[in-house]
Design a protein that fits this description.
Elements lengths: L12 E6 L20 E2 L3 E2 L1 H11 L3 E6 L4 H10 L10 E6 L13 H6 L2 H7 L3 E6 L3 E2 L3 H11 L3 E9 L7 E5 L5 E6 L13 E12 H12 L8 H12 L2 E5 L15 E2 L4 H10 L27 E3 L1 E2 L2 E2 L1 E3 L2 E2 L4 E3 L2 E3 L2 E2 L4 E2 L4 E7 L4 E2 L4 E7 L4 E2 L4 E2 L3 H7 L1 E2 L5 E3 L1 H11 L1
Parallel strand pairs: 1-4, 1-6, 4-5, 8-12, 14-19, 17-20, 18-21, 19-22, 20-23, 21-23, 22-24, 23-25, 24-26, 25-27, 25-29
Antiparallel strand pairs: 2-3, 6-11, 7-13, 8-11, 9-10, 9-11, 15-16, 28-29
Keywords: ATP-binding, Carbohydrate metabolism, Glycogen biosynthesis, Glycogen metabolism, Nucleotide-binding, Nucleotidyltransferase, Transferase
Function: Involved in the biosynthesis of ADP-glucose, a building block required for the elongation reactions to produce glycogen. Catalyzes the reaction between ATP and alpha-D-glucose 1-phosphate (G1P) to produce pyrophosphate and ADP-Glc.
EC number: 2.7.7.27
C-alpha cells in the first residue's frame, strides 16, 4: 500500500491486540475470564485502554487475538465495540485461536498469533501494524510512535518505559545508544544497562511494537518455518531484529496522553492482586495518578443502560454515605459507610456495613453489619451478614486468598466453602 500525502499515519495502520493470556498471577480473578477482560476503574475492562488508545490515535482497523476463556472478552467487545462501520473502511475483528493453520495448533506464542492470521491482516491493506498487549492500563497516542518509526526508518520501533535502575531487573530491558537505537534486548537482566546520560534509569519494554507490515509479514513466515523458535516477539523476533536490523526505542513519555493533572506518565501492569487493588484504589485519590475524567481522550467501553447510584438512610450509625470513593451507576448504598473504595456497576451495600479500601466488582451484595477493609470482591459475590475482613490476618487467610501485602481476594466459591465448613 502506497502512503498518501497529507494523511495521518494512523489511517494507514492497524492495531493487532494480543489478548489471549490468562494472567495467572491474578489467581481466581482469571478463573472465568482472560486478564484483558478483567474489570477496572468502575465500568471498564482492562482491554478498553489499548483499544481506546488506538481509536483515539486515529486507528480504525483493529484485530483482537483471543485464546484463554475468551467468552466474556468476546461478549464485551461485541457489545461495547460494535460501532465500526465497514462502509467507512473501519473494522474490528475478533480472532480466537481456531486451528486455522493446523488442526492441532492453537496460538503457540505472541508472534504465532499474528502469523496464523496473515491473510486477515493482508485483507486490511495497511502499511503499518501496531502490536499491542491487551492487559495494561495507560493512555498513549500511537500516532506519535508511528511518526518516529517512519522518520527513523526502523525495522521495528519498541515502546519503552523509563524505570528506576533498581527496578529494571523485573522487565525486558533495552540497551540503547544516544540516538535511541537498540543495541541489545535483555530479558530480566541481573545488571540492567542504564540510559545513556542517565545512570539512575533504564528503558523497559512495554510490549508495544510498530512494524511495516511487509517487513513483519516476511519475518513471520520465516519464523513459522523455524522449528527452534518459540514464535514469540520478545524471545525470538525482537532479538533477531536487534542483531540483524534496525530496532529503535520509543520513550513512552513522548506519547503519553495527560490532561495536565497527572504528574508523571502513567502505565500499570495490573497483573497481581496487589497491583490490581492498588491501581483501582489510586483512582479514589484527591488528584489521581490517572485522570479518567479527561473527555479529550475518553476510555471507550460497553456503556450499560442503568439508573444512577442512590444513597439512602440518614440516621446515626445507619447513614448511606461514600467519601473519597468511586460509585458506579445502579449502586445502592443503603445505610452503610463507604470510604476510599471503588464500587462497580450494580453493587448493593446494606445497613450498618462498612467498606474501606474495598474494590467491589459488578453486582456485589454486601449484607448487613459486614465490616470489610483492604479487599477485592469478585463479580456477583454475596457477602454474608456480619462478615469481618481485614482485621485478623490468620482468619482472612483461613478462608480467602490473602497476599503478603495483606490484600484479601474474596470469591463466591471461597464463601461457599467457608459456609459448608462452619455449617
Amino acid at each position: 500500500m502506497k502512503a498518501r500525502p497529507n494523511t495521518r499515519l494512523s489511517s494507514q495502520a492497524m492495531a493487532f491486540v494480543l489478548a489471549g493470556g490468562r494472567g495467572s498471577r491474578l489467581k481466581e480473578l482469571t478463573d472465568k475470564r482472560a486478564k484483558p477482560a478483567v474489570y477496572f476503574g468502575g465500568k471498564t475492562r482492562i482491554i478498553d485502554f489499548a483499544l481506546s488508545n488506538a481509536l483515539n490515535s486515529g486507528i480504525r482497523k483493529m484485530a483482537i487475538a483471543t485464546q484463554y476463556k475468551a467468552h466474556s472478552l468476546i461478549r464485551h467487545c461485541q457489545r461495547g465495540w460494535n460501532f465500526f462501520r465497514a462502509e467507512r473502511n473501519e473494522y474490528l475483528d475478533i480472532l480466537p485461536a481456531s486451528q486455522r493453520v493446523d488442526e492441532t495448533k492453537w496460538y503457540l506464542g505472541t508472534a504465532d498469533a499474528v502469523a496464523q492470521n496473515i491473510d486477515i491482516v493482508d485483507s486490511y491493506n495497511v502499511q503499518y501494524v501496531v502490536i499491542l498487549a491487551g492487559d495494561h492500563i495507560y493512555k498513549m497516542d500511537y500516532e506519535i510512535m508511528l511518526q518516529q518509526h517512519v522518520a527513523t526508518g526502523a525495522d521495528v520501533t519498541i515502546g519503552c518505559l523509563t524505570v528506576p535502575l533498581a527496578e529494571a531487573a523485573a522487565f525486558g530491558v533495552m540497551d540503547v545508544d544516544k540516538e535511541g537505537r537498540i543495541l541489545s534486548f535483555l530479558e530480566k537482566p541481573a545488571k540492567p544497562p542504564h540510559i545513556p546520560g542517565d545512570p539512575a534509569h533504564a528503558l523497559a519494554s512495554m510490549g508495544i511494537y510498530v512494524f511495516d507490515w511487509a517487513f513483519l509479514r516476511d519475518l513471520l513466515i520465516r519464523d513459522m518455518a523455524d522449528p527452534n523458535s518459540s514464535h514469540d516477539f520478545g524471545n525470538d523476533l525482537i532479538p533477531q531484529i536487534v542483531r540483524q536490523g534496525k530496532a529503535m526505542a520509543h520513550r513512552f513519555a513522548e506519547s503519553c496522553v495527560t490532561s495536565g493533572l497527572e504528574d508523571e506518565p502513567y502505565w500499570r501492569d495490573v497483573g497481581t492482586i496487589d497491583a490490581f487493588w492498588q491501581a483501582n484504589i489510586d483512582l479514589t485519590d484527591f488528584v489521581p495518578k490517572l485522570d479518567l475524567y479527561d473527555n479529550s481522550w475518553p476510555i471507550w467501553t460497553y456503556a450499560e443502560i442503568v439508573p444512577p447510584a442512590k444513597f439512602i438512610h440518614d440516621e446515626d450509625g445507619r447513614r448511606g454515605s461514600a467519601v473519597s470513593s468511586l460509585v458506579s451507576g445502579d449502586c445502592i448504598v443503603s445505610g452503610s459507610e463507604v470510604r476510599n473504595s471503588l464500587l462497580f456497576t450494580g453493587c448493593r451495600t446494606h445497613s450498618y456495613s462498612t467498606l474501606e479500601h474495598v474494590v467491589a466488582l459488578p453486582h456485589v451484595v454486601v449484607k448487613r453489619k459486614a465490616d470489610l477493609a483492604r479487599c477485592v470482591i469478585d463479580r456477583g459475590v454475596i457477602i454474608p451478614e456480619g462478615l469481618v475482613v481485614g482485621q485478623d490476618p490468620e482468619e482472612d487467610a483461613r478462608w480467602f486468598r490473602r497476599t503478603e501485602a495483606g490484600i484479601v481476594l474474596i470469591t463466591q466459591d471461597m464463601l461457599d466453602a467457608r459456609a459448608r465448613t462452619l455449617g
